[in-house]
Amino acid sequence: MTVVEETAPASVSAWQERYAAACRDVYRSTLFDLAKSDARIFAVDTDMGGLEDSFEPELPAQYVNVGIAEANLMGVSAGLAADGLVPFANTIASFAATRACEQVKVDIAGNNLPVRIVGTHGGFSAGHYGPTHHSLEDVAILRTLPNLTVVVPADAAETEYAIRAIADTEAFPGPVYVRLGRSATPLVHQGPYEFRIGKADLLRPGGDVTIVATGPLPVSEALAAAGLLAERGIDARVLNMHTVKPIDEEAVLAAARETAGLVTVEDSVLVGGLGSAVTELTSERWPCRVRRIGVPDGFHDEVGSERELLVLAGVTAERIAEAAEDVVVRSR
Questions:
Q1: Fewer CB within 10 Å of terminal CB in the chain, N or C?
Q2: What confidence tens digit (pLDDT) does each residue in 251-281 have?
């Protein structure tokens, strides 16, 4: 399904004002807007805060709060979906992928039900809460489950596009996981554009090397790295891989053929995430050099801001640029 927001602001300033909020806030307002015109859409909540202010007073028949009970959240959402409704299950990303993994696997993915699981606080975005709230494994875990589409919007605008797209159960009849952060992040898109689930978003053309990134800060750092590379005479292509599963095979393989190699960037563990998806594909279809930038293996018990923890993990523009330059040099 292609989404180009017809009611998007006409000016850059209006666009920036509209999408200055955190992705999770734009998600909530978009979901409420959709639910007002579609009685099938339900908000299934886990005492997350925010949704009860809109749904509970104005759409009480479409709001269910199961409390802090994530396994129950998935079971209730599966039941609603089996009855023809479109439940959006709301929780923290780490809890969706680990605490409720069995229910997601058996109740939702196993039955191919149209539950939309929306996990906030993805990556290190809840870094100030410590390792219990770091969500570094969710993409790796959930992309292994059958039938499940995995979407990681790059900014607030893309969040709205993604939520509007997956509300269409004819286009997406199966389960979807959408991973969001906690706080506002830089806008990647400055105006309307074509958004398609499963199709990479080309942010910058380039013929020397390709940077493939997913998630708000990784994508922002990838663009910054491309700027650093340009100063060094290296022309970097940047792909926003907002859909990790199914990955855009055409875009990845084209990059493998047309450039010296790929650098993947993510705010997830390196095992099983975007980098793994890219290397799985290229190793079988078009072997090339791939360097992966992400969170290294280990138990990350540091407490800090999202950016501070990403710097500690090595997910920075400078490190991305160094990896990309190395790919280019080795190819020569």
A1: C
A2: 999 999 999 999 999 999 999 999 999 999 9
Residues of the chain with CATH 3.40.50.920: 198-331
Q: Tell me if the bond preceding 146 is cis, omega within 30° of 0.
A: no
Per-residue pLDDT averaged across 49-68, rounded? 92
Question: For residue 8, is pLDDT > 80?
Answer: no
Architecture per CATH, domain 16-179, reads as: 3-Layer(aba) Sandwich (3.40)
Find residue 262's DSSP bridge partners: 210, 290
Cα distance between residue 285 and residue 283, in whole Å: 6
CATH 3.40.50.970 region(s) of the chain?
Answer: 16-179
Query: Could you say which architecture CATH assigns to the domain 198-331?
Result: 3-Layer(aba) Sandwich (3.40)
| Helix 317-331 vs helix 216-231: crossing angle, to nearest 10 | 50
CA-based nearest residue to 62, from 92, 28, 89, 87: 87
* pLDDT of 331 higher than 60: yes
Give the per-residue pLDDT at 298: 83
Mean pLDDT, all residues of the chain:
95
The vertex-24 CA angle with 163 and 200, nearest 5°, equals: 50
